[in-house]
Amino acid sequence: MKREVEDGVILHGAFFLGPKAFYRSLREMKPEEIARIRMMPVSFTNALYGEEDAKRRARLDARFVNNAMMATLMGAAVSDGLEDGQVISGVGGQYNFVAQSFALDGARSILALEAARWVGRKAQSNIRWSYGHQTIPRHLRDVFVTEYGIADVRGKSDAETIAAMLSIADSRFQGELARAAKDAGKLPKNFEIPAAHRENFPERTSAALKPAREAGLLPSFPFGSDFTDVEQRLIPALQLLQAAQRTPLQLPGLLWEGFMRTPDAADEECLARLGLDKPSDLKERIYRTLISAALARSK
Fold first, then answer.
1. Max Cα separation, the chain?
2. Distances (CA, A) of 155 to 52, 140, 200
């Protein structure tokens, strides 16, 4: 650590969350090491008031990283609910952290979100022109990150913010989003998304990451997990099968692949974990065949 937060303490923590190995490592830390971690109430980290001078000294150049479900082109974020009134979660400390990033010297707020998601069989952009519910208002816009890049929008004009957010949006939706902004008079009619940002497609990202994944450099759980090796093999296979169900024409291909192959010992372990080692009816045999193909594809 480059800087102590106070009196030899390098970290204030409200709670810890992780796999069993993580908890074990905490328990086994030396007394002098554990003394440098000070457990504090959630309110201590969420708020700047109360011991403000000390907090300001400790939080110089702080980086507050949070997740969001959606964001708008104008830089608002949606993290806790939907526009129909459905509550997804509590706001938690997100608003507090974002507000602190504007109150502290050198601090920044970073909100990460996926550029798109599946709703049933249809892909939908998580970057919207507008949305009927907001967790973080547009006047607190700062840094947004998707799988396609970074939009640093603090202090930017509305037009600059919209252009930056379009650059990290999924390209399947960029045209529609840009038209909405132009219709609202927020972008010039002749605005065009730069060529470098018009290839934001999931397939391109997967292809770019494939060599690193095959080399074992991008494990699914880089900080450890309580999932067994078998369960970790099953997760991508089940995700692949779920994606195939959104485009049913893929299922016959998967079924044929599964029918033509014989599961190896590792596959059999996975099938047994799902109770498909001895299928009892046609439905289970079909599902076993699909899982077998998905396991082969996801290796």
1. 69
2. 25, 9, 25
